[in-house]
Design brief:
The chain is mostly beta strands and 179 residues long. The chain has one domain: OB fold (Dihydrolipoamide Acetyltransferase, E2P), CATH 2.40.50.180. The protein is 13% helix and 43% strand. The strands form 3 sheets. It has a 7-stranded mixed sheet with strand order 1-4-8-9-7-6-5. The longest helix is centred in the last third of the chain and has 7 residues. It is globular, with a radius of gyration of 16 Å.
């Protein structure tokens, strides 16, 4: 049985102070050792610990299956594989995932679960930390809103809608009904 932890801003035990006028809150996601992206605090919905995974045949290379969240089936995605085409990892049964919201091309709200090897945490990003996007992969300009420095590394701030619409994460209505 999976457990769910709600990490919305107003309930978050990790969020103790309001960001200043020249800063913003973001979730820091480490998708590989010392490799990070950030996402707006408003799109990160919940951390699900030890989710039950439903295997799905013929899913994309970055897909791990489906999880049930709040009476919905969500695709579970290996973030490293989705971003950079890395070989997807098997999902550890005791691991966790982060449910992220995004707008579809039709402007409907949709959700996806990201498999993360490390626990995400909420940080405050100051304008003074802003920097240029990393140049190590071509994907960053098409999915990023901005970038900042964290522990001497460039961290792209990823727009969830750009990322997930780019990869057509959504299941079509026929698949949803058959589950």
């Amino acid at each position: 049985m999976s457990t769910q932890t709600d990490f919305s801003l107003h309930n978050s035990p990790l969020y103790s102070t309001k960001p200043h006028r020249n800063s913003a809150s973001a979730w820091l996601l480490e998708y590989a050792p010392s490799r990070y992206i950030a996402m707006a605090s408003t799109v990160c919905q919940e951390i699900v610990e030890a989710p039950q995974i439903l295997a799905v045949p013929a899913i994309p290379d970055y897909g791990l299956g489906l999880i049930q969240w709040r009476n919905r089936w969500l695709p579970l995605v290996d973030l490293h594989s989705l971003l950079l085409g890395a070989e997807k990892k098997t999902f550890d049964k005791d691991a966790h995932c982060l449910v992220v919201a995004y707008y579809t091309a039709e402007q409907h709200i949709a959700y996806v679960a990201l498999s993360l090897p490390y626990f995400p945490y909420l940080i405050t990003v100051n304008n003074s930390a802003l920097c240029a996007l990393p140049t190590d992969h071509d994907i960053w300009p098409s999915i990023s809103l901005s970038c900042f420095r964290y522990q001497d590394r460039r961290v792209p701030i990823v727009d969830s809608s750009r990322l997930f619409n780019r990869h057509a994460i959504l299941l079509d209505e026929g698949h949803k009904k058959s589950l």
